[in-house]
Design goal:
This protein is of the alpha+beta class. Helices cover 56% and strands 13% of the residues.
Length: 359
């Protein structure tokens, strides 16, 4: 945005310093004039015939006062310019760092030293912003690279199948169609997951009152065949927990949590417990499952996109794209909530979602 040129902040501060100094000098001289010269007699004999009269004092005092005012003006301008430069030096460093960041280099930090003042707080806040921005950009770059890789895989498989069918016309077309259908379905699911993840990050949805307990029951009913197939007990308990948000996104969140709890479980005989409750203006959803103990360093990475958690127990047909918990975290963040993942001592995972409730 183009702006008209104007005075710099340093020049404005310099003029302000000089102006205040001149005003202070003027007030001081005025006080001297008002409370000193007013008591000097204005006659040719002066005070008792031995002191100078007002006329002589004024003509003696005026040149000295003018010289003092000129000195104050020059001193104010020079001193103000130096002081303003010293005061604005931290802003110069912050400006240079902002310009460096504007070129795409986000690794630069100001790291201002000295006492904790307003400029130091601004510098620390700017460094913190650069750190978060650098982390976000790096995360987006990794996400884009992983998404490109994941989308390229089904396309490459489809091309390979078509090349094989072209070279071998006698090949069973039914088998080819089934495999192409499976690959296409995986590509569609991945694309929909990416779109849902992007939608959750934007927070672009209409808010309404949603009962998490009803969503938990709906998700459990949908995933019950999968739980029975894996011989896992699925239990939904708790009371109403009403939160404000998108019913579609929150249902996907609950479904992903329950599905992950079923898939990443014991080979047989495991349990999944879903509980909802509301207290203190907060709606809480807890999903707890059994399973093998999780490595300590694995749990914090489970919400990263395309992080499949290879150390967790799962079947190949439900390997997924590694976006389940990433979508959950995105939806929770878009609803101003919190997501906590805690490994259970005996194995498995306890996932707790807290969302702002509605009156």
């Amino acid at each position: 945005m183009d702006r008209r040129p104007g005075l710099s902040a340093r020049l404005k501060l310099t003029l302000s310093y000089a102006g205040f100094l001149v005003v202070a000098g003027t007030l001081l001289l005025s006080v001297v004039w008002a409370f000193l010269l007013r008591y000097v007699p204005d006659n040719s004999q002066g005070l008792l015939g031995i002191s100078p009269n007002r006329y002589l004092l004024v003509h003696t005092f005026a040149p000295a006062a003018a010289l003092a005012m000129a000195f104050l003006l020059v001193f104010g301008l020079v001193g103000g310019w130096i002081l303003a430069g010293r005061m604005l030096a931290p802003l110069t460093r912050i400006r240079d760092a902002a310009r460096t960041a504007g070129t795409g280099s986000l690794s630069h930090r100001i790291r201002m030293k000295g006492r904790q003042d307003e400029f130091r707080e601004l510098s620390d806040a700017f460094d913190s912003m650069l750190g978060q921005l650098e982390s976000h950009v790096a995360e987006q770059q990794r996400f884009a690279a992983n998404a490109s890789h994941e989308l390229r895989t089904p396309l490459a498989v489809s091309r390979t199948l078509l090349d094989v069918a072209r070279k071998d016309p006698a090949r069973d077309r039914g088998e080819l169609i089934e495999r192409l259908s499976a690959v296409n379905a995986r590509a569609i699911d991945l694309t929909e997951a990416l779109l849902l993840l992007s939608r959750g990050d934007r927070g672009d949805f209409t808010r309404e009152e949603v009962d998490l307990s009803l969503l938990a029951e709906e998700a459990a009913e949908t995933l019950l065949p999968l739980a029975e197939q894996r011989r896992i007990t699925l239990d939904v308990t708790g009371g109403a927990a009403v939160a404000g948000g998108s019913a579609e996104l929150l249902l996907r969140m609950v479904t992903n949590l329950v599905q992950n709890a079923i898939v990443h479980n014991l080979p047989a005989g495991g349990t999944v417990t879903v509980r909802t409750e509301a207290y203190g203006g907060t709606s809480v959803l807890r999903v707890e499952n059994t399973g093998r103990p999780l490595p300590p360093g694995l749990v914090p990475t489970l919400t990263e996109p395309f992080r499949r958690g290879t150390d967790r127990v799962r079947t190949d047909e439900h390997a997924g794209a590694g976006l389940g918990l990433a979508i959950v975290q995105s939806v929770v963040r878009a609803h101003d909530g919190t997501l906590d993942l805690v490994p259970r001592p005996g194995g498995g995972l306890l996932v707790t979602v807290r969302l702002p409730g509605t009156p």
